Amino acid sequence: SGCAGTVNWSNGSSGTSIVLSSVGTYSITTTCTVGSCISPASVAVTGLQIVAQPAAPTITPPGSLVVCAPSTLTLTASGCAGTVNWSNGSSGSSLTLSSVGTYSISATCTVGSCTSLASAAVTGLQIVAQPTAPMITAPATKVVCSPSTLSLTASGCAGTVNWSNGSSGSSLTLSSVGRIVFLLLVQLGLVQVQPVQQ
Length: 198
Known about the structure:
The protein has no helices and 20 strands. By secondary structure, the protein is mainly β.
């Protein structure tokens, strides 16, 4: 302001305002030209800087995208010289997910006052709830004489019941002579539960 003629900027532009858009550090002065007369240069405006926008970090997903609780999913980010900010609100070079749910995770990189665009999202991340162990119904008589058999049934499993002798199915019939202590291994999709052996 204050120029009745043409404002000439030290970067070669002219006009009453100037827009700086290239990455760099600037010290800017102006002169005012009226007719054939040019004013002295104004006091320089220093400390002007446009910082390069950092690149988005690269996310390395976990080896398995779907796990069963209480297992966790850990993602790591690289290529950021500042702070990695994850889309779930966490920050740091790695992110560990531990709650049951389905996730889509991206990250940005903040260096100083500049933040990158978001990285490509890692999708298909899921932590599946661990099912409870099934209930075993034992036979009324636990000791029988061959060739009689013993039958056990399992309930409360929405998936596949796997018996500790290698059999699977909702019931198990024992026909060989011997004394057997049973454990159950329940399998539901990727979820496995094994009760403590007694």
